[in-house]
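Lab meeting, action items carried over

1. Structure of the four-component assembly. Owner: GW. Status: complete.
Input record:
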Amino acid sequence: MPHQFTCRVYYEDTDMAGIVYHANFLKFIERARSEWVAALGIDQREMKDRDGQVFVVRRIECDYLMPAYYGDDLRVDTSPAQVTGARMVLHQVVRRGDDILFDAKVTLVVIGAAGQPMRLPGALRQQLH
Amino acid sequence: MPHQFTCRVYYEDTDMAGIVYHANFLKFIERARSEWVAALGIDQREMKDRDGQVFVVRRIECDYLMPAYYGDDLRVDTSPAQVTGARMVLHQVVRRGDDILFDAKVTLVVIGAAGQPMRLPGALRQQLH
Amino acid sequence: MPHQFTCRVYYEDTDMAGIVYHANFLKFIERARSEWVAALGIDQREMKDRDGQVFVVRRIECDYLMPAYYGDDLRVDTSPAQVTGARMVLHQVVRRGDDILFDAKVTLVVIGAAGQPMRLPGALRQQLH
Amino acid sequence: MPHQFTCRVYYEDTDMAGIVYHANFLKFIERARSEWVAALGIDQREMKDRDGQVFVVRRIECDYLMPAYYGDDLRVDTSPAQVTGARMVLHQVVRRGDDILFDAKVTLVVIGAAGQPMRLPGALRQQLH
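Predicted assembly:
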């Protein structure tokens, strides 16, 4: 079962084409990742303040399939597609009702205070096992 | 009773000072206004698509009292401070628990498709009567 | 020769990790596309206001190779990788000096007022011929 | 003579009303402040990395007088209105040609790593003397 997150489209998300500005879909799916990670017991703020560690996006492949509009209630489904010791690939899909609006594969790593690659937190490494 | 809206702080909202970027408080309070207006039965998308009418911010006075951080759950209280036929002033306060982080007076008008000032929707004009 | 566009990183672009927030690279490369398209004699505002036509992003594949920081002067190189009648793929690279920070392939189409696919403007269709 | 900064409006700045989203004017004037401060010889990134000090907005009063549109070339004029040891008020005006679109008074302070108020850098304290 993918992790589910919902959000609503506000004025700030739209552009003069009358639809959600394309870069803002990346914000929606990052909110979803934040909630997914928190649900696994990982406190991103503590990771950063105590350990100097942050998640960093390494690669994104995404398809924009249908536009989203002001007032839309969107659902983001997040599921791990591949998790190794130091890297994970998430599959994230944004839906409005039954319609798929946006489909992304996002590759993430964790880096330390000096920018060096770190092992993923254990709670994440166990996601595909 | 003010209208209440809650939102959470995500990565997108923060800046390199480690706190919410100041302009993003304006986004939070606009989300709250959107929900307040919707709760009064006004459909902003229909207003725009059918009548070419949009709300426009005319003036903001705001004080930044305390910073907000990643993961904070914020509450926005919105209450009408002054409503005339064509203009309204809202008082909007952002809180985290008992702390007031941000306090704003926002003046709004409605303009038509040609940019001309319009009367406020009736549901808004009745708010202070 | 790719089209070149430069921009500077400001506070708004950064996040609490102290680097440019990943989604904001999409804004940088869109600014570059806007300038590239304008340099080809295409007026996006007129396209929209007169013809109801807008460019829409259909797909992005991008790699984040190195972080960008406040105050960095970035250069975006834009070159057409593939152009057919109704679709174009652009290769866009963000550099700081000799370092490549971000590398993207962006697929774009033009849609009309009713959302229907349109032929690309002639000035674009001639880019790879 | 006020400090002058120019910027262009891109797609990211607009909203579904077809104009620049109101909160984005705060981004434009912050870019201008960054350039003004840099022109006075103050390196904000070094201030933060070496001394843990950052500028913080305390209060904004602003009037939205005319809308800005995609493709507009805007000029931001920045001039100090009041500077004391620990606080400064800047007057910032956004123009398109001869038209004034936005007029703001912004109050800023500098805080240290623990959030405590600091004296403004000397180069700023001398601005009104």
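2. GW to write a short summary for the group page. Key points so far: Chain B has one domain: 3-128. Chain B has a mean pLDDT of 95.
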